[in-house]
Structures are given as structure tokens and as C-alpha cells.
Amino acid sequence: MRLRLVYLAVGIVIALGASALVYQLGFGPGRLPATLPQASTAPIAVPPVESPRPALLTAAWIGYKHRFIQPDGRVIDFQRDQVTTSEGQSYAMLRAVWMDDRPTFDLTWRWTQDNLGDPTRSRIGWLWGKAPDGSWRLLDANWGPGAAGGPVLNPSYLAPYEYRIFAREDRVHRWGELVDTSYKALHACTDAPLDSGAGRLPPNWCALDVATGAAHTAPGMSQGSDYGYDAFRVMWRVALDARWNLEPRAVRYLSSYKTVLLDSWHQQGKLASEYGHDGAVRNSNEDPTVYGGAIASFLVVDRNAADQMMSRMEATATSGGQDGTYFGTSTNYYEQNWIWFGLAFAYGALPNLDR
């Protein structure tokens, strides 16, 4: 049996919080009706491609399970006091589905339900770890972020490619509208000057006016307007909608905001790890983690640059023998996941699980 339904559960873990915020926004007239979203047949730069799973992805998955997933299904972030996050659990489940590893998916999903779940609300908390009293438990549910200026949104949580799957499985909720408002929110947050004077890259966080859909600086968020370790994921999620669904809005988005990253790559031979919302370098250090998002974008707008970046990412792999392969720093779970996601996209190893 195909894993479509379990993939649906994975996506909800990742996307439900952000989806609820965008779903409540009116964005004025022109919202989509509650119908299934239809893929465009217009030609785009990236055709859907699928290929056999490269050995590197398999070796890295073996290494990841060995280092980060406990026998009970908990994923540990060793660089943050051994906490567990809903993000870490969902990454493991996504990879398990694409690796056709049902036992690991079931194990990880069971731990998530037992330790992060609220069965009375069908919601997932985000942070589990050691409390001040020494007990290990859910530390923060954080189900409804917001601020006086409007809902606070992390644009990288938006996943239009997932909402199309949800629409086919769940005919009750209006997932089709969420595809439309997600792209409106992405453009609003990226185009708005926020606190930098110009919008050239998506921000880590922004706030949205419920009445107008206008974006402004997210209050209380340190470096919230920067393009950093949250925002780089926007490129991967939008590019996947282009590849899976031939979505012209995805291609237009990536093409509209390609200049800063492509210029940096062509001129410097690398990307900075963090940029301001206006494209100014914030942290000049190179970190292949962020290439996981950029490579998906480059595959849409500049294949030669994508091929160069793919080689750079592959060069971070180290074989640990029977313990499997890891990328970069062996204890950095975020780096392991995003280099894997980026390479899997480049290899064409992320088939649309709804087909």
C-alpha cells in the first residue's frame, strides 16, 4: 500500500501551525473556492524528474538513524541540550517515507503522538526536553503564535505542495484556499521592506495584517527579518511545488528573488550563511546547511550553479563505516537533514507521494 496517508500525517506535523495562521487571513477578494487545486499545464523550467535512490542518500539515512533516532523513536538534537522538537520528528518521518522505511516511520510517529500530542485537540507541541525539576516532558506547546500587530508567520512553514495532497484526502477543509493565500503571504513578506528598507529575500519571520494582508516586521523576533536558518527553507518548499505540480507561481517566485543568491554564488563562489532582508550579508561564513534550500531554487533558475552546489554538498559527506555516512558536523541534526533534503531534490529522489 502506498504511504500517502502516513505522508499526510507527517505534513500536518510540519505545517498545521502555520497553516492555521494563513487560513484565517482574508487577503481581500479573489480567494480560492473550496475545491481541489489544479496543477497548471504551462511549461516551466523544471520538469518532474524521478530517479533511483542514490547510494549516498541511503548511507546518510543509515547514519542518521544510528546517531539521532533513539530505539523508542525520539529524535535528539545534541547541540541543544538533547531536546526533541516536532520539526526533528517530522524530518525523520519525511525521510522515512521517501526511503520506504515504514518501521522507522511508525516508531517515530508513535513517540510523537505519545509525547508531543494533545489528543483532545489533535495538535502537536513543539519542544520536549529536560525541565528545571529534572523531569523529561513537553516543555512548550506553543500552538498559536501571534502579536498585537497581527499573526506572526514563519514563511518557511508554508508548504503548498503538501496542501494539494491534503485537499485530496480531506474534503472538509478548504485546503485549496491555503495554496492561494500561501503564495500571497510569501510575496507579502518578501516584498515588504520590513525593517531593512527593501525586500529582496524572504524573512525568517514577519507579521501579517489580518484585514489587508500587508506584511510588517515581526515584533520581538531577533533577526526576524533576516534571510537565515529559517528562511532558506522557503526556496526548497516552493521549488518542490514547481517540480511536483508545475506551479507557475512557484517558478515566478523563485525567479523574482534569485538575484542576491545567484550573484553571491557567481561572484564569491559560495553563499553566506545569513543575509539581511535587503540582501546585505549578515554572516559571511559558509554553511552547506543553507545550500539545502538554495540548490532547489537554483535547479529552477540556473542549472549550472545547481550542479556546482551539488558537488560542494556531496564533498561534505564522511563515511562512518558501519555507522553510516554523515554530512559536515556529525552531531548537527539540522545540517544532516537539510543537506540530505537538498541532495535528494537534486537527484530527483523525492517523488510525489500522491501519485
- The residue ranges in which pLDDT falls below 50 over 5 or more consecutive positions are 1-10, 12-49
Largest sheet: 3 strands, antiparallel
Mean model confidence by pLDDT:
86
Q: Give helix % range.
A: 40-55%
Helices, by number, come to 12
Shape: globular
What is the succession of H and E elements?
A: HHEHHEEEEEHHEEHHHEEHHEEH
Q: In total, how many beta strands?
A: 12
Distance between the termini: 12 Å
Residue share in β-strands: 5-15%
Adjacency order of strands in the biggest sheet: 1-4-5
Structural class, from secondary structure content? Answer: mainly alpha
Rg, alpha carbons: 19 Å
Task: Describe, in plain words, how this protein is organized in 3D.
The chain is about 45% helix and about 10% strand. It has about 350 residues and is mostly helical. The two termini are about 10 Å apart. It has a three-stranded antiparallel β-sheet. A three-stranded antiparallel β-sheet has the order 6-7-8. Mean pLDDT is about 85; it is low at about 1-10 and about 10-50. The protein contains twelve helices and twelve strands.
List the helices and strands and how they pair.
Elements: H1 4-23, H2 55-68, E1 84-85, H3 86-98, H4 102-116, E2 117-118, E3 123-124, E4 127-130, E5 136-140, E6 152-153, H5 160-169, H6 175-191, E7 206-208, E8 215-216, H7 233-245, H8 248-256, H9 259-268, E9 274-275, E10 281-283, H10 291-301, H11 303-314, E11 317-319, E12 325-327, H12 333-347
Antiparallel strand pairs: 1-4, 2-3, 4-5, 6-7, 7-8, 9-10, 11-12
Helix pairs in contact: 1-3, 1-5, 2-12, 3-4, 3-12, 5-6, 7-8, 7-10, 10-11, 10-12, 11-12
